[in-house]
Design brief:
single chain, alpha+beta, Beta-Lactamase, 6-stranded antiparallel beta sheet
């Protein structure tokens, strides 16, 4: 069983980067742990999925991505399932035909607000097939909580 002790050093490094170098650098740290090209933080806004921040491993200077209709995203499934991993969307029976997107490989976790309601997602994704490290779900969930606190703090300033 994967415990918090297993990812504690990575979580501490993530926290240090978030506090001292900013959210984009911390998102890049998470991205380097995955084979996916993109990592993002998204917010649920009724029928729209709003991109708050994006890290593109090919173009690290990119800080923001496009918003998308909620129904065209795997993040919409995370809203109800808490976390989701898809390695090859065209062959995944859970999503085949339900969501039309160029994303082939996806790994995401739910970010909750202070009241425990769905706020958005922290996710990795790519337009090609990728094998994800399932062990990163625990780190991603903790990182999502910290990203939310950081966003909340930034909005108060």
């Amino acid at each position: 069983m994967y415990s918090k002790n297993d990812f504690e050093p990575d979580l501490k490094e993530f926290e240090n980067l978030l506090a001292n170098s900013g959210a984009h650098t911390a998102l890049g740290f998470l991205n380097r742990r995955t084979p996916h090209r993109f990592s993002g933080i998204y917010k649920f806004d009724e029928k729209i999925l709003r991109n708050i921040m994006l890290y593109d491993s090919y173009y690290p200077a990119v800080f923001k991505g496009e918003d998308a209709p909620m129904v065209a995203t795997y993040c919409s499934l995370v809203k109800t399932q808490q976390k989701l991993e898809i390695h090859d969307a065209p062959n995944d029976k859970r999503v085949n035909g339900k969501i039309i997107t160029p994303v082939i490989s996806y790994c995401g976790v739910l970010i909750k607000d202070d009241e425990g309601n769905p706020f958005g997602t922290l996710c990795h994704f790519d337009m090609k097939r990728c094998q994800e490290r399932i062990s990163d779900f625990s780190l991603m969930e903790e990182a999502g909580k910290l990203f939310f606190l950081n966003l909340k703090k930034d909005n108060q300033n």
